[in-house]
Design goal:
The complex is a heterodimer of chains A (302) and B (309).
Chain A lengths: L2 H21 L2 H35 L11 H6 L2 H10 L2 H7 L4 H22 L4 H5 L3 H5 L4 H34 L5 H30 L5 H28 L2 H7 L19 H15 L3 H6 L3
Chain B lengths: L1 E10 L9 E9 L3 E5 L6 H8 L7 E6 L7 H4 L3 E4 L11 H11 L4 H14 L15 H13 L5 E5 L7 H13 L5 E5 L3 H7 L2 E6 L2 E7 H5 L4 E6 L6 H7 L4 E5 L2 E5 L6 H14 L4 E6 L3 H14 L1
Helix pairs in contact in B: 3-4, 4-5
The chains are: A mainly alpha (302), B alpha/beta (309).
Chain lengths: 302, 309
């Protein structure tokens, strides 16, 4: 297949996947989940901020605020907010940058880094598996290559995840505007727009992992469980490798850490486009992971 | 010229399992409407799967449209397939589904829409074009699947049980569509319905246990070109006179019927006129005439012979 034909097929498959997801309402469900998770998490964080502010108001013997946000500057000046961010991010340079941004956006990004892998891998696990089960892939497989099909589904699902993140960030913005005070709308929106693409890039390896699992079986529950288990496994491997390489075998870190997404998550914190390198690596990792099981899929009775 | 040729193809689903295809060699002439016939488990669907690239063969070669085995780039838009049990998403519209497949076949958006419209008209679903597949009956969904195989102008169309679930009128309409493709497109139809195959096809491949039993034109396989059965009323059949009129031909009386086997270079039409004349002269009523045996009879005889040997 010529490259141009392949690319056209990938685009067609991705577009069809999107249209189909809209029709089957799976796109709506995915957007709803992202929105509920990000906006819900943000809403709970406002409650936490409010409790910090109430404690501060009590300490300073000033009247308590009805809504969170009014005492954020004071929390910042007293270093309590910085302490909170240090607990979340750990890296001092990243903390220095993040403290200048609206705290709800920073929290959303931090939370997203933890939650998005699970959502993305679960979404990826459903990209091919059901069509193996009911053999509907057969209509496509006499018209396009299996590689193009996998790549197209990856692209389509990645777009859906992006859509989910966009809606989720919009939800966070609404929470900030309605649940907090003194949150400049434009600044809040800009900071969320700063983080949303980074979260999207972060989702790609996990989406790839899910799509790799999706090629293995026609049983969606199995592929989803495998993908979620794989995500947890990758996190455990990262933690153990980091510990072993820090304390015992540095070479292990050199060998294993570069192929794990977590090694690049810290690089996503920072101003400008300093994260572009990490973004490229994560995107490539997503594609490579999606194709790990492709040799099996290429030979299976689809 | 051959549209599809299989040589020594073997395939099994597990290392110790039975061969689903066991050294199958057969060919399908270009422009023909061919029937692929065999009992359950004969390997018909496996054959289709191997041809369409769903499954790789373990041994042997497949030559599709003269260019070797299945290659999606080479066969894009040239091969139309009706898979036996592949589902169609219930929330997809008929038009949308076919337009998408047309796009994958390499058509532009406009061409794909036009081809989808034509295919839907062919299977009498044009009035349901914008309905979701889930709202269609089983038979209609089957027709939609058939439409996907007819989409565009494929040179080779493989239809696995196309008539399954169709009512008589729909079956007839589909037969007419397939009949109109004769000479232009090679159509291979797999079916258990031997009457259907006999009515539709001009070439037939008989399979059993993954191997070929017999292949040839429908006339050859059913003996239409050489055998005629005359069902007669009471009376003395003038066999001697017939043998004298048509030397080299065989005449056998069985169960009130005269079985005529044409000799070499005997024109069957001329022979029929002569036999009818002789019977009429002898005052014997002719109750029925059948050329050859039915495909079912041929198939059963061939299968029995193959299993016996």
């Amino acid at each position: 297949m010529t490259t141009l034909q392949s690319l056209r097929d990938v685009a067609l498959v991705a577009r069809w996947w999107l249209a189909r997801s809209v029709r089957t309402r799976s796109a709506g469900a995915l957007v709803l989940i992202y929105t509920l998770l990000l906006a819900g998490g943000a809403w709970m964080f406002t409650k936490f901020i409010h409790s910090m502010e109430l404690t501060l108001a009590n300490t300073l013997r000033v009247p308590p605020t009805k809504k969170p946000g009014a005492m954020l500057d004071t929390l910042k000046e007293r270093g309590e907010l910085k302490e909170l961010l240090q607990g979340m991010i750990e890296d001092p340079a990243a903390v220095e940058w993040a403290i200048q941004l609206p705290v709800l956006s920073t929290f959303t990004f931090w939370m997203g880094l933890g939650a998005v892998p699970f959502l993305a891998c679960a979404a990826g696990a459903e990209a091919i598996s059901p069509d193996i089960r009911d053999r509907s892939l057969r209509y496509e497989l006499v018209r396009t290559g299996r590689l193009e099909l996998v790549a197209g589904r990856f692209l389509g699902q990645a777009f859906l995840v992006g859509l989910g993140l966009a809606f989720g960030c919009a939800g966070v913005w609404i929470v900030a505007m309605t649940g907090m005070v003194d949150q400049p709308p434009a600044e809040q929106a800009t900071s969320l727009m700063l983080f949303a693409p980074r979260l999207w890039v972060w989702s790609l390896p996990w989406l790839g992992l899910g799509i790799a699992c999706s090629q293995l079986s026609g049983t969606v529950n199995f592929t989803r469980t495998l993908a979620l288990g794989g995500t947890v496994g990758v996190m455990i491997v990262f933690g153990i490798t980091q510990w072993l390489s820090d304390d015992y075998w540095p070479i292990l870190g050199d060998l294993v850490l570069p192929i794990l997404p977590h090694s690049y998550s810290l690089g996503l914190w920072g101003p400008g486009f300093g994260w572009a390198g990490e973004a490229l690596i994560l995107a490539a990792m997503g594609l490579v992971w999606a194709l790990v099981t492709y040799p099996l899929f290429a030979r299976r009775n689809a | 010229m051959t549209a599809l040729k299989l040589t020594g193809v073997r395939k099994r689903y597990s290392r110790r399992g039975a061969w689903a295809l066991d050294g199958l060699s057969c060919q399908f002439p270009a422009g023909s409407i061919s029937g692929l016939v065999g009992p359950n488990g004969a390997g018909k669907t496996t054959l289709f799967s191997v041809v369409c690239g769903y499954l790789p063969p373990d041994e042997g070669t497949v030559d599709i449209l003269g260019g070797g085995p299945f290659d999606v780039m080479r066969l894009k838009g040239r091969l139309g397939v009706l898979p036996q049990d592949a589902a169609i998403g219930t929330r997809l519209t008929c038009r949308g589904f076919l337009t998408y497949l047309g796009g994958l076949q390499g058509m532009s958006g406009r061409d794909a829409e036009a081809a989808a419209e034509r295919a839907l008209t062919d299977v009498l679903l044009h009035d349901r074009a914008d309905d979701r597949a889930g709202s269609l009956s089983h038979g209609m969904r089957r027709r939609l699947a058939v439409a996907s195989a007819l989409l565009g102008a494929p040179e080779l169309i493989l239809l696995d049980e196309p008539m399954a679930g169709l009512d008589p009128a729909q079956g007839r309409a589909l037969r007419e569509v397939l009949g109109s493709l004769h000479g232009k497109t090679t159509v291979i139809v797999s079916s258990h319905d031997l009457d259907e195959i006999e009515r539709l096809c001009d070439y037939v491949v008989l399979m059993d246990k993954g191997a070929l039993i017999r292949e040839g034109s429908m006339a050859e396989v059913t003996g239409r070109g050489e055998l005629v059965r005359w069902d007669l009323g009471p009376g003395e059949v003038p066999v001697a006179a017939l043998e004298a009129t048509l030397p080299g031909c065989g005449f056998t009386l069985r169960d009130g019927a005269l079985l005529f086997e044409a000799g070499d270079e005997v024109d069957l039409d001329e022979a029929s006129v002569a036999i009818a004349g002789a019977l009429s002269t002898a005052g014997i009523p002719i109750r029925g005439v059948q050329r050859g045996t039915s495909l079912e009879e041929s198939f059963l005889a061939e299968t029995q012979e193959a299993r016996g040997s």
